[in-house]
Each structure stands twice: as structure tokens, then as C-alpha cells.
Specification:
The structure is a homodimer. With about 500 residues, the first copy, chain A, is α/β, with parallel strands linked by helices. Chain A has 2 domains: about 150 residues, Aspartate Aminotransferase, domain 1; about 270 residues, 3-Layer(aba) Sandwich (Aspartate Aminotransferase, domain 2). Chain A has 16 helices and 16 strands. In chain A, the strands form 4 sheets. In chain A, strands 3-11-10-9-6-4-5 form a 7-stranded mixed sheet, with helices on both faces. The first copy, chain A, has a 4-stranded antiparallel sheet with strand order 12-13-16-15. In chain A, strand 10 and strand 11 form a beta hairpin. In chain A, helix 6 runs parallel beside helix 13, helix 11 packs parallel to helix 12 and helix 14 packs parallel to helix 16. At the A-B interface, helix 2, helix 4, helix 5, helix 6 and strand 3 of A face helix 2, helix 4, helix 5, helix 6 and strand 3 of B. Chains A, B: InterPro entries: 4NH2But_aminotransferase_euk, Aminotrans_3, PyrdxlP-dep_Trfase, PyrdxlP-dep_Trfase_major, PyrdxlP-dep_Trfase_small. Chains A, B: It comes from Monopterus albus. Chains A, B: Its cofactor is pyridoxal 5'-phosphate. Chains A, B: One of its GO terms (cellular component) is mitochondrion.
Chain lengths: ~500, ~500
């Protein structure tokens, strides 16, 4: 495990070489680079187009076992470092997609490798407990040290789960249970409730609903999927619930230039939300909760203002619905704050906040009253994985020690300003550059051009992801620095220049 | 990490001491013990009643963060070994419940610890990939070495998932997609399908159903939960689907003594299954698939004959439904065969077989035609966890090397014969002893006595679990030997003698 660690000085000098050597380079940094990633590579290095021959061979092999239609290429995770993903053909790419936004501090971070070699941690990996019945001794401490240290305002309770979908499913269940208990006035079900619930009938299984937004993505298990409305391919052929779907604001960017128009658009959507709540109550399917992403990610990086979310929160209070903020993709620091909802500037942002991806474990925070008072209502065999809590605690240490939220704000600014400049230069191709921290996106003139750009950029050593109909989303790790933004922008510029 | 490994000889002699010293001992082994677990402890050792003071303190602490109503006690996983779980108060208990049947080869198995110290494996733990798009180089090989080496008859395709519920949810989705494509005659959705699916409407989101059985347990996310009918507390207050629920045979035990009565009961249930398929088709909610456990576990260890399952398989063929066998609890060797469905003796047991728990990773095997032909229909960020495949491959090596399926058959026989004897002796308390391999259960006269027995047995150093209304289920690890069965039976005998 000998890592060729690049020193700060060496990295800086190598960096400059790559930088100035890039063709069409316009992004020479004006300020001195503040921080380098010590265990990072010095730039992309491409040996083949992607997927290369070895990836193609492995894809064929895996194709005998699984559907491989979504496989991009095969990776050499041992050789990947920091912001760079290395593939099995020896290509080294700057990664602005990070496994669908789920690698918090880059590949093979020394702090995480060190944790693995600590013999005191072995047992946590080898003996996966049924956390809900037989937790390990250090479980309360580890939760306090990891998740509770980043608990959203007003929340002291957290439940871990295995993945994002399980987190949202169980958050929905908590909201249903809370709503029914509120309706009952107490938490003791009737005999009829008990009897009918087992056979899928009311009143035990009531006709409650969750209100979600067009363009949203909350997961793919059947409860979550009923609130997901980003792409048809996710939902096609799967039975679902008749739950209300509100329009999500379709804003104009840059937000500050269209504040009047955007405020009108948001009002329209909020009115629709209230109408739907009333309509579904009349239908006999009352809205127990509203679920929303602070930025719709999979659906195309759709933003809304803090005002919009504050109003939504108030609508929930007014109509007695729970408010569930899904931070599976936005959480973990990538917007420049640990939670995207912190940008709203409110003390009581939500009743439930769910997470996964960069947090490494799934789960959700909740207010006291949302936690069911009886055992086994929210339960499964594993209820998460303490090994992931170990990693998360270390990730949070690194974030604090290296001031990564500040870094994200700084590199995010470099990234977004670069996108604004490119958008001005290539106005026939690019539009709607937007973002918060490094959680940025830009629209491409059409789907086909978008996909062509993604492939060409990858062949030049940068991994990006698509979202929505024709957007590119940027989801680098928290150790992505200004100079990484510049490397990307230079390459992106080259690709766009060749397209023009 | 110095483990006080007990040698075979020492263990044997210590074992004999414990054995003969137990009060009311009747289970002195008549044959020489064939195999010892080398890294095991020599017997239970109790210092406090359970939960002890330290567990109580930690439960209080965790209670500020989560609902702790289901917490039994806190564990010292570092000190746990083989068949013995050690708690934070220094109590060492023989574990016949194994984290709800999810520890395949005991605690801290040396083979798994060794795997953790291999530097080649570090990267797999530290860099969790988005498996569906960017798999690691060794992924096809690891699948072949682990899961495919135990693929059910007729299946060469496997999809990993994070947990049992996700496995079943995605298996259901595969069956819905397969059914709709069959109905279409091709796999290309119409524009109307695409448009309506995003807004939760037919025909894009069709009114299909999954037929399940009373008493079944298939998980707690909302799709799974619609097929779970074991206990009200799992389902209460959660909206669900109007899907058909068939009666599961309620057999008399021992099965061989009641073959005529049981065959009648099974016929009755099978008729009902066919009636429901017809009825739901007429209702406009055709049954796309049937899901069943080979032994209903959570629901009370309810068995059915190989004939019953073969007939069910044929009913599926006749009515064009997919057949999904849920082996989340029964899979992994505990019935004496790797899959419980192998006891049916058929070449084409199912269209889908799902797993989790003892397999360490969730997932499902499927026949070729059940795999959707388009990308992103079955997908999520993680799609499982390659670190779990590493462990599984090693677990399978140990199972083969140590002939653990034979051992399970042998120790299961000792366990079940002991239960038969105790049932004859305590006929007012015990009834319906039943089992396959070590996957055994026995009924107690009433729920309250059952729970009293569970606590008393635990205080004497044996961990058991309940299931159904008043059953005790036995779910030891695959390294549970005849002499462990005898240790348990002696203690159980003591508890029953004191109850009488």
C-alpha cells in the first residue's frame, strides 16, 4: 500500500505545468492556490478512449450475469486517489460525478485507510449486528460523534438505515404513524385497526398520501417511487399510489436577475400545493406529509428560493402535514453548508431530514414527536451498518480539520463563475448555469448534444453526469479545489470549442 | 487482537465438564463429538441477569436518540466468538438467534478477520462504488466466485442489493416489468405509457398485483409490506395495495404422522390461490407474481410440503404469473441444504429467488427472461456493496471446507430429537416441534409463558428468538454442532423443569 504521495510543492508545480499547457487555456488562477490535496494526482492522464478495451471485455463478461446497459466503464479503485478515478485501462480522470455524488472526501483518503488498519475496528466490519435489538457498546457514542454532531436544527433523534430508499420509506412510515396518532388523539390502535391492517384493509391500512413535486426523485422502492417523478424509465410498469403531485417552480437563472418572475412562479406552485392538500383531503386521502428536495437533483438541478421552502414549511404547519426534506443528494457539505436547508436560514427547517450517499450510511433525523412510541414499528434486521458510522465519523473529522465547507464555497464559486463565462461565450450551446457550492449544473441546447459533450469530456479526462432532460450536473467531492475547477473548465472549453 | 483460541482437546474436556455439571442433565452425547469449533468458547458464562446494569445504562443513553423498545441488551462484539455472544456486562451466551438469523459462521470467524487484514482488500471497503455504472475490475469474478457458485437451479443471473427489503422490492418490480412486456408482446412502451407513468397513472403505472400468503413476511418497505401479513405492528397506519392474500397451510406436526390431513389442508390453500388469481384478474388487478417463503419464518415457522410448492409453481405456469421464492431467512444453509427450495427436488424451482441475512449482501437470482432488457429500470446508487461480496466468498469457502451443510443436518437432528423428547416430557407446555436442519421451532402453550421462557433461558446463557403468536424459533449459525444442541437442551430442560 505504498502511495506515491505528491507533496504540496510538487503538486503545485506539476499543477502549473498542466494548467498552462492545456490548449485554449483561459483559466489561469489569479490568486495563489490556497490548499492542495496531498494524496491527489496532478491531473488527468488518458491512454485510451473510454470505455477502453479492458472495460469492454469486462462489460461483456458482466453482461452474462446482469443488465449492463448502465455500465460506463470498470474501475481500478486501488489506483484511484483523491479527485481522480482510474479505470481498468489505465485512464485517470478528474471525477466531478463521484459515484452519483456519494464519495465525500475522494478516493482512498489516507484517514479512511488508516481507520481500516486499526485492529480495534476489525470486529465492527466482521460482525454486522441487528442494530435494533443488539447494538454494540459504542453505538450511542458513535452516533453522537458522527450523525448527531451534524444534526439539523431542532432535531436530536436519528435513525440509521441501509440506503437512501430505505431511509425515505421509513421516513414516510413515521409520518403516516404520526398523522394517524394525531387523528386518534392517542397512540393506541383499536382492535379493528389491528385486525384490518394485517389484511391490507382500512382502517388499519388507511388511505393516506404523501405530496411530492413534479421532477422530484426520492428513490425507487414502491413507497419512494410513488413520490418520484423525474423520468418515466424509473416508474414504468410499476403499480403505484394515487398521491398528489404539485408543480415545482421552474425558475429563471441567474436567480438574482429574475427575482420578480421567480417569486411569481413560486407563488403559483405554492397555491397549487394548498389546493392539492384540500382536494386530496376531500378525496378521502389526506396528505400526511410533504416530501421535497432542497434542490431537485436527478430531475435536472431545479432550485427554489429560501422563501419558497419557508412558505412550504408554513403550509405544512397550517394543514397539519409533516414536512420531510430529502437531503440524500444535497446533504453532506456539497452546497457549502452541511445541509442545503441551512441556506433557508430557519430554526425549525423540517420534521424529518433524510440522508444517504455522502453520509455513507442511510438514515433520517426526526423531531421527537415523529418518532413512533412503540417498538418494531420502524424496524428491520440491520437498521444500517455500524461500519459506515465509523467511516462517517472520520469523514466529519476531515471536513472540520480541513475546513472543507469553506473550500467547497471557494471552489464552487470558481466553478460557477467559469460556467457563466463559458455560457456567455457559447450561448448557442450553454444556458442556465446555476449552483450552490460545488452543487452546480448547466443546460445544453439538446439531449443529443449533452450526451456528446459528456462522452467527449470523458475522453479528455473529466467525468461528469447528466440530469433532467438536457442538464449536466457537477458533483465533485468535498476535496475539490479551485485548481480542479480550472482543470475542468479548460477541458470543457476545449470540448465546446471543437463542437462549435 | 490476541484471541485465546481453545484447542480441540481443551475444548472437548471443558465441554464435558460443563455438560455433566449441568443440573437436570439428560443429554450426554452418546456418540463422540465429530467436530469442534476451534475458535469457540467452551460454554455460557453468566455474571448478571440480562440486561445487566451496563446494558441498562446504555439503553437509557440510546433512548435519547432512538426508540429503544426493541433493544434486548448491548453487545461486546470484540469478545464474542463462534456460537457465543458476549454482552457489555461480561455475560457470555450461546446464540441460537444470531442477529435474527444473519450471522452465517459465528462471531469473529478467523477467516473473516484474516480477510480484513489483507491490504489488497482495503480499497473495497474504503471506496464504495455505484455498482450499476462503475463496477470494480474484480466484480464479475467476485460474483462468479461467491453468489453464482450457489445459484439456484436454472438461474445464471444475479442482482445484488443492500438489504432484504430492497431485494424483494426490486424482485417485485422485475416481475411487473416482465408481466407488462408479456402483455405488450414486446418491451417498448407507448408514449402514453411513458407520459402517464411519471404522474402515477395507468397505463404507465398499471394496476398489477402480487399474491402473498397470510402469515408471510417479506419486508417492511411499502411494496414488501403489502405482501407481509405476520403481525399488525408491522403494517398499522401504513397505506397499502389491494393485493390478494391466500391462506398458508396450517399443518399438523410431525408432518409424517399427518400426511393425509396435511395434504387436504394444502389442497384447500392451493384452490384458494387459483380462485384469487381469477378473482383479481376479473377485478382488473391481475396477479403478476406469487411470492412465498419456503418456511414462513417471522410468521411462526410454518412449513409446507414439497408437493405444495411444486403445485404452486405449476399454478404460476398455468396462469402466467412469475414465481418468487423469498429465501431471505431460509437461504444460506441453515435447513441443511444451501437453499430451502432444494428440498422440493425440482429442476426449475422459481423465476426469482431473493436472499439477504446469512448471505451478508441482499439480492436476487433470476431467470434470463425476468431481467429487464433496458438499463436503469432496476437501479439505485449502490446496488449492494462489494465489501459484502468479499465476506460472502470467504463464508462459502468455509462452508465447503468444513462441510457445514452436513454438520447442520447432524446438529439439526440432535436439536429436533431433543425437542421431541422435551415435548413428550412437558406436553402441557410444548407442542408442534418442527424443523429442517437447524431451522427449528416449537410452540409454547401461550404467549406469556413463551416470553417468560425466553427471558429465563437467556438468564441461563442461551439466546433464542420468538416468532408467530407463541413459537420459539431456533436460528443458530452454521457452525452450531451437536454438542451445542446438547448444551442448549440441558439448559432448556432446566428452565422447563422450574416452570412446571
Amino acid at each position: 500500500m505504498a502511495f506515491p504521495l505528491i507533496t504540496r510543492q510538487l503538486a503545485l508545480s506539476l499543477q502549473k505545468n498542466v494548467w498552462l499547457g492545456a490548449s485554449g487555456c483561459r483559466y489561469v488562477s489569479k490568486t495563489a492556490t490556497k490548499t492542495q490535496v496531498e494524496f491527489d494526482y496532478n491531473g488527468p492522464s488518458m491512454k485510451t478512449s473510454v470505455p477502453g478495451p479492458r472495460s469492454q471485455e469486462l462489460t461483456k463478461q458482466l453482461g452474462d450475469i446482469q443488465n449492463v446497459g448502465a455500465v460506463n466503464f470498470f474501475c481500478n479503485y486501488e489506483e484511484s486517489r483523491g479527485n481522480y478515478l482510474v479505470d481498468v485501462d489505465g485512464n485517470r480522470m478528474l471525477d466531478l460525478y463521484t459515484q452519483i455524488s456519494s464519495i465525500p472526501i475522494g478516493y482512498n483518503h489516507p484517514a479512511l485507510l488508516k481507520l481500516m488498519t486499526n485492529p480495534n475496528n476489525l470486529s465492527t466490519f466482521v460482525n454486522r449486528p441487528a442494530l435494533g435489538i443488539l447494538p454494540p457498546e459504542n453505538f450511542p457514542d458513535k452516533l453522537t460523534e458522527s450523525l448527531l454532531s451534524v444534526a439539523p436544527s431542532g432535531m436530536t433523534r436519528v435513525q440509521t438505515m441501509a440506503c437512501g430508499s430505505c431511509s425515505n420509506e421509513n421516513a414516510f412510515k413515521s409520518m403516516f404513524i404520526w398523522y394517524k396518532n394525531k387523528e386518534r388523539g392517542h397512540s393506541t390502535p383499536s382492535d379493528e385497526d389491528l385486525r384490518t391492517s394485517v389484511i391490507n384493509q382500512a382502517p388499519g391500512c388507511p388511505d393516506l398520501s404523501i405530496l411530492s413535486f413534479m421532477g422530484s426523485f426520492h428513490g425507487r422502492t414502491m413507497g419512494c417511487l410513488a413520490t418520484t417523478h423525474s423520468k418515466a424509465i424509473h416508474k414504468l410498469d410499476v403499480p403505484t399510489f394515487d398521491w398528489p403531485i404539485a408543480p415545482f417552480p421552474r425558475l429563471q437563472y441567474p436567480l438574482e436577475e429574475f427575482s420578480r418572475e421567480n417569486a411569481q412562479e413560486e407563488s403559483r406552485c405554492l397555491e397549487e400545493v394548498e389546493d392539492l392538500i384540500v382536494k386530496w383531503r376531500q378525496k378521502g386521502k389526506p396528505v400526511a406529509g410533504i416530501v421535497v428536495e432542497p434542490i431537485q437533483a436527478e430531475g435536472g438541478d431545479n432550485h427554489a428560493s429560501p422563501d419558497f421552502f419557508r412558505s412550504l414549511r408554513n403550509i405544512c404547519r397550517k394543514h397539519g402535514c409533516a414536512f420531510h426534506v430529502d437531503e440524500v443528494q444535497t446533504g453532506g457539505g456539497t452546497t457549502g453548508k452541511f445541509w442545503a436547508h441551512e441556506h433557508w436560514g430557519v430554526d425549525d427547517p423540517a420534521d424529518i431530514v433524510s440522508f444517504s450517499k455522502k453520509l455513507l450510511t442511510g438514515g433520517y433525523f426526526q423531531k421527537d414527536e415523529l418518532q413512533p412510541d412503540k417498538a418494531y414499528r420502524i424496524f428491520n434486521t440491520w437498521m444500517g451498518d455500524p461500519a459506515k458510522n465509523l467511516f462517517l465519523a472520520e469523514v466529519l473529522n476531515v471536513i472540520r480539520r480541513e475546513n472543507l465547507l469553506e473550500e467547497v464555497t471557494r471552489s464552487g464559486k470558481a466553478l460557477l463563475n467559469g460556467l457563466y463565462e463559458l455560457q456567455a461565450q457559447y450561448s448557442g450551446i450553454l444556458s442556465r448555469a446555476r449552483g450552490q457550492g460545488t452543487f452546480c449544473a448547466i443546460d445544453i441546447c439538446d439531449d443529443e448534444t449533452r450526451n456528446r459533450i459528456l462522452l467527449k469530456t470523458r475522453d479528455k479526462g473529466v467525468i461528469l453526469g447528466g440530469c433532467g432532460d438536457r442538464s449536466i450536473r457537477f458533483r465533485p467531492a468535498l476535496i475539490f479545489k479551485e485548481y480542479h475547477a480550472h482543470i475542468f473548465l479548460n477541458i470543457f472549453n476545449d470540448v465546446l470549442a471543437q463542437l462549435k
